[in-house]
Design a protein that fits this description.
Elements (H helix, E strand, L loop, with lengths): L3 H17 L7 H28 L2 H4 L1
Length: 62
């Protein structure tokens, strides 16, 4: 079962295709690229947050 975001995206593509009368498709490569980039951005964000947390003085946190 596809994730809700994929279903919403497919619906948006279908709606746009009907409104513009253009043949729009969502290739699986684009879905996988967006998934990969999402994981990459989340990992980089987590690494930055962890590094800042390690550098913080515990007295400043409280």
């Amino acid at each position: 079962m596809p994730a809700p975001a994929i279903l919403i995206s497919l619906g948006a593509y279908q709606l746009t295709a009907m409104a513009t009368a253009l043949p729009l498709t969502m290739p699986m490569g684009r879905v996988l690229l967006v998934l990969l980039l999402t994981f990459l951005m989340c990992n980089v964000s987590g690494a930055i947050a962890t590094r800042r947390l390690q550098a913080a003085d515990p007295a400043d946190i409280f």
